[in-house]
From TrEMBL:
Motif DGA/G per UniProt: ranges: 179-181
Annotated PNPLA domain residues: 25-192
Organism, scientific name: Clastoptera arizonana (Arizona spittle bug)
Name of the protein: triacylglycerol lipase
Active site: S60 (nucleophile), D179 (proton acceptor)
Lineage: Eukaryota, Metazoa, Ecdysozoa, Arthropoda, Hexapoda
Motif (GXSXG): 58-62
A single cellular component GO annotation: cytoplasm
Amino acid sequence: MTNTNLFREPNKCCRPVNRRRKINLSFAGCGFNGIYHVGVAVCLKKYAPHLLLNRISGASAGAIAACYLLCDLPVSSVTSDVLELVRLARKRTLGPFSPTFNVQDVLEQGLRKNLPEDAHLRVSGKLHISLTQLPGFRNVIVSRFYSKEDLIRALLASSFVPFFSGSHPPKFNGGYYMDGGFSNNLPTLDENTITVSPFCGETDICPRDDSSQLFHVNFANTSIEVSKQNVHRIIRILYPPKPEVLTKMCMQGFEDTLRFLHNNNMIKCAQYIAVESTFLVSSKLDDDTEEIEHDPECKDCLRQRQEAIGATLPESVRAIFQEAVDAANKGLVNWLFRIPGMKILSFLALPYTLPFEIVYATITK
């Protein structure tokens, strides 16, 4: 018997049309809430990698997340680095406010270790970093980087919070800058920009809290709903929570992104992604290149969306969080601090221990 499937016309996922619509991404600055962006990144890389082919903007932690995505760094190593940063911040009595903890130094070490030598070539023209210029608090968006060092300086400048990160703002391109979140925390490149924020509000990808949603505050272009949950998230900007809470935040980032992709029909098959990649390359060479239109009846895309229903964080990522949870709960010191009153005693001892920490921090600097 003849197999008619051999002569069946292949599934056509997309066709050219005279319409240009490139989708960009924007990640909000959010401090230690940045673990939410890790969950978003995992979901995008798995179910919508075609959204990572265009321009990505961000401020502070959002800019670092955008840079890592454009450089296609392994999510596992990025997750481990974020959790290590949290561990170093939480192990001190004053947490990240301790004189012996310098968040800028830890960030710089991570950037130098993770970013490839050609990182500036990979992201130049695609990564848009929000900075706040000093003096004047004017917002500046930079997208051209001439070396890896130049890129690192821009990322560190976008993450500098006065007094929390240090007393002297970093220098970049001959000027002084601080956290871009003070002037434009969620830089929107155009009307086709998908915005991402760990704060519940009117952002495209964000948590959806069970609240009235009547009152919103717009801070530096970031919509934040007035709610109890957002108060906790604001506190976490500068003070990281326990690994158990970080795990939930990352999972929520994954689930919120998956919900957005489902609702907007953005989960595509491998064929669509391949055609989209080819289109982007050719469009850079020829401004008259036609856009592509997706076939809503593509069986491969429908199958991909069906498989994504109920998906969760990959086991490899969850294992990294579990290791952090286990490490935070084992050992004599951690056991002692779980005893009621021990944390209070450590704060009462601050008048005696803090001077030594200040002296140590001054000498090492």
